[in-house]
């Protein structure tokens, strides 16, 4: 009976959609150039995903090749992103930045008119950098309490990682890729090598965090110079999705309890935003904050100097002296 059942039930198709040869040709050229430039494979993968959207639109919808597109064709593509794919302005900006790189690497000139016109009309210059709300030290403590008081076997490790992210201001991938060889567990200094901007930088943690970190690493299975500081019970690297999920569950509980407004977007990356705002609030020069956080552009750091959180605090301070 089971054999009949298996034969009669519909099975999901396992077809993989093949890229048109024209699309594949341009993707391969782009990948080769990016690999030659030493770009991280994860970054290349993200770029390829977006580039496929552009190339498929060009080849299948416009029935053209990227090297013959005109200004109006690029306008059609961005209208397609907004009207049909319903992409946010920030995501559209990522496509715009990607196309600037693509046409430069392909040594093609036909994107120049659209780029110049976009700069002149400020099409992509007013997009908001921030995607998430920054986090304060008080809110961080609330989140930490939820995690520490949970029944999870890994609550100490997870809470330590989150506190380290707050202290260091580093990206989750930078923290999880941190090795023993790049960590001074006596001084509390850490060298980040596998960074988004490819430039090494040094970060620190507080003495309290360092004390807990040294307690935690006693139980690590692997302790070689190339082994990760943060690892699972088998000594293997921790997936970034795990920390994101732990953090999200804590935030959801606080929202349910009414301690965080439902409309606030608090995610792991909010720790990095919060660190930027906190350092600026404490009077650290903008260029120092830029270097510490590894911002590629000073504009990114300048954004935090005018952040909503800083403005709200400024308004309250002004109110006190009136």
TrEMBL record:
Recorded GO MF terms: DNA binding
Record GO biological process: DNA integration; DNA recombination
InterPro entries: CB, DNA_brk_join_enz, Integrase-like_cat_sf, Integrase_catalytic, Integrase_recombinase_N, Integrase_SAM-like_N, Tyrosine_recombinase_XerCD
Keyword field contains DNA-binding: yes
Residue ranges constituting the Core-binding (CB) domain according to the UniProt record: 21-107
Gene3D superfamilies from the UniProt entry: 1.10.150.130, Intergrase catalytic core
Keywords: DNA integration, DNA recombination, DNA-binding
Tyr recombinase domain location: 130-319
Pfam families, per the entry: Phage_int_SAM_4 (PF13495), Phage_integrase (PF00589)
The keyword DNA-binding is assigned to this record: yes
Protein name: Integrase/recombinase XerD
């Amino acid at each position: 009976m089971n054999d009949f059942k298996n034969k009669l039930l519909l099975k999901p198709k396992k077809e993989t959609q093949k890229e048109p040869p024209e699309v594949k040709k341009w993707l391969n050229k782009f990948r080769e150039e990016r690999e030659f430039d030493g770009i991280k494979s994860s970054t290349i993968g993200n770029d390829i995903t977006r580039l496929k959207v552009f190339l498929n639109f060009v080849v299948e919808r416009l029935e053209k090749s990227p090297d013959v597109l005109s200004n109006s064709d690029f306008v059609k593509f961005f209208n397609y992103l907004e009207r049909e794919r319903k992409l946010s302005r920030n995501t559209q900006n990522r496509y715009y930045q990607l196309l600037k790189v693509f046409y430069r690497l392909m040594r093609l000139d036909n994107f120049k008119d659209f780029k110049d016109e976009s700069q002149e009309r400020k099409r992509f210059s007013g997009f908001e950098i921030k995607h998430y709300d920054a986090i304060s030290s008080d809110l961080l403590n609330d989140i930490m309490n939820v995690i520490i008081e949970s029944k999870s076997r890994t609550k100490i490790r997870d809470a330590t990682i989150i506190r380290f992210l707050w202290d260091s201001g580093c990206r989750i991938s930078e923290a999880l890729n941190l090795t023993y060889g790049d960590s001074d567990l006596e001084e509390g200094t850490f060298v980040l090598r596998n960074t988004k901007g490819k430039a090494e930088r040094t970060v620190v943690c507080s003495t309290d965090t360092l004390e807990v970190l040294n307690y935690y690493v006693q139980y690590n299975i692997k302790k070689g110079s190339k082994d990760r500081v943060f690892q699972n019970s088998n000594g293997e690297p921790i997936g970034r999705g795990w920390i994101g999920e732990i953090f999200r569950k804590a935030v959801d509980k606080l929202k349910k309890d009414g301690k965080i407004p439902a409309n606030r977007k608090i995610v792991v990356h909010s720790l990095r935003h919060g660190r930027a705002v906190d350092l600026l609030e404490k009077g650290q020069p903008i260029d120092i904050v830029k270097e510490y956080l590894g911002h590629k552009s000073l504009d990114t750091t300048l954004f935090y100097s005018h952040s909503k959180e800083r403005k709200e605090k400024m308004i309250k301070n002004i109110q006190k002296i009136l």
